[in-house]
Amino acid sequence: MIDTHDLAVPESELSPPYSRYADFYDRLNQSTFSTRLAQEMLTYFEGIGHFPGKVLDLACGTGAAAHLYAQRGCKVVGLERSNQMLAHAKRRADGQTEIRFLEGDLRDLRAIRFNESFDLVSCYFDSINYLLLEEEIVSCFQAVHALTVPGGFFVFDVPTRWGFTELWDNATHVAIDEPDLFGLYRSSYDPVTRLSPLQLTIFQRVGSDETATWTRFDECHTERAYTLSELTSALSAAGYTVTECFDVRDNGASLLPSGDESAHRVAFVAQRLTELTPAGNVD
Question: Tell me, which fold does domain 32-159+226-272 have in CATH?
Fold first, then answer.
């Protein structure tokens, strides 16, 4: 059994989020969820007769969902805050002219020159939960509204408060255990602040059998839980109507109707139907 107390490191020794993790993200199969959920969303939109010809994938990571969109005939822009993750996304998309990538932050979308609007804006795998203040949620949703064509859609997924409580609080999971790589996820959840810090610890074996050494790095990723009513209200204030709230199952591979606070994770589908006044109110 691993004594995780022995793995504690001072904050000053933590690497910035995704600065080192980016090199191992796909190997730890972290792209699988976004790929599956993007596929499910495209199937949903096909069913309602909406083909998203132009897609903006926010917090696109290593570009898995963007790659899938392009394969399905969409023109794609991927936005990612981490330049290390973005480098992997660009390598994945090598030769795909339908994809372009931009470096940028969900907290400051208005500062980015997209020079176009989109039929679909997506943001997968908890990325919305990295916005730790309600004001950041509201600002992000309003900025996304301005980037969505009338009648277009905004989709994203979030763990619920129950999901954080049940799966993230006081939890330790082995992320990978292979001869040259070992990793752990350790997380907690505070129901008062609704903050959930997750510490990732990775050990990598470097060198040949005779001279092999092990290197280590740690990153801390903090997310915040939001109630579904808070997110619905923020979407409404931004000029969206929630058309679906799915219960996400099977690591993104299946969507069940009527997702609610009893689900571990839900996915919102919101449609832009209204305009915002300069004051930010819905006409």
Answer: Rossmann fold (3.40.50)
